[in-house]
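Z., the sequence and structure:
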Amino acid sequence: MESDKVIQRHYADSLGVSSKSIAVQSDNGTGESWEAGHNSEVIMYWSLSVAIFSIGGMFSSFLVGFVGNLRGRIKGMLMANVLAVAAGLLMGLCRMWKPHLLVISGRAVMGFYCGLASGLVPMYIGEIAPKAYRGALGTMHQVAIVVGVLLSQVLGLDFLLGNDAMWPLLLGLSGAPSVLQSLLLPLCPESPRYLYIHQGREEEARKSLRPPEGEYDQTADPRGKMRRGRRKEGEKEAKVSNPVRWIFYYSTAIFERAGIAFPVYATIAMGAINAVATLVSVALVDRAGRRTLTLVGLGGMCGCALAMSLSLGLLVYNYPWMSYMSMSAIFLFVCFFEIGPGPIPWFIVAELFSQGPRPAAIALAGCCNWTSNFIIGMTFPYMEMFLGGYVFVVFAGLLFLFTIFTYLKVPETKGKSFEEIAACFRKGRKEAPAENNGTTTAELEQLKSSSDA
């Protein structure tokens, strides 16, 4: 994006890189400087600006359970929003001191916030959503992410905010959604499962279950709804690593390599397709099921990755029409990702685990996700340097393995209780001897597990 080059030029200014190299005009007269982006010191700080976001998410993802249980899901999200506002101010006011240091600091704080939010939000949605709408509401978390990505891509155009005068505002606006969320969250009910199971506040849990109008619904009694069964927690599910992340990290460069005339606008078109495909997933997830959509998505992504490698490899042999094939493969790759592997891992962990271990499971899955993003973001340029267009064969192999694992190990959770999901895990394995009734009753009272969580 143009905004990346603008920010790198200001990094060079702040670092004292020769003004001659910054002022060099490109052949087309646009005034873009490529020298600043090739300076080793600028590259180091720019790479740190990109990587520090994922590092912050890696560390904070371990705190999701602690923050969510400390004062509740709502207050946990409100506390996290303070970090987002602080990060937006650091980046928005970066010209007041050294831009490269303030932007890196802001990105680190924003990454820390996103690590918390990416766990707290799906946890909260999974605990308050009715079973019939759990998938669609869980997918809305991903919808918000992709719409934000698309909006940032559009605002990053040079004639909007991606220019020398407005780029700090572009970065500072990243804290604005948290301000809006802070105004709306007090209107939302606290998780009744948190209130009853963790706090023992039965009356407040009843009020959280009360519909906006009408009398209290006895069928939603938390004691009946939250204490029906105990899940044997022997299986662990981690989030699928985010292989589409490298598409967005280096989308413009990939389109340039493919010979696309206007790679920036192709990247924005990819963001729009990303948003539309996520909305399709919202409509399908409670009909087709989580497992089916994930398998379709992973299989389609595997095929598209192979097509990208083939098309980019043949471009070397002067087959210009292959540029269209590569662009189509990238767009389809994003579509398959958002149909299943993109949104579903955010909430399926909450469905696979009961109330007790759920925060820890979400924290572990979030850490896997952020660690994968960091590794991909840092290693992809070097992989591409050594393998060229065939770098996507590596991702195709990983996607094939993910597809096999999902087919063999991941159960369908659509409309199922914890007992039914646990039965899917136990199928084909020898059962442990049944525990005596007294022990089971005591554990039920301690865990107060929810079969409808």
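The CA atoms of residues 216 and 347 lie 28 Å apart. The chain is about 70% helix and 0% strand.

Let me know what you think.
H.
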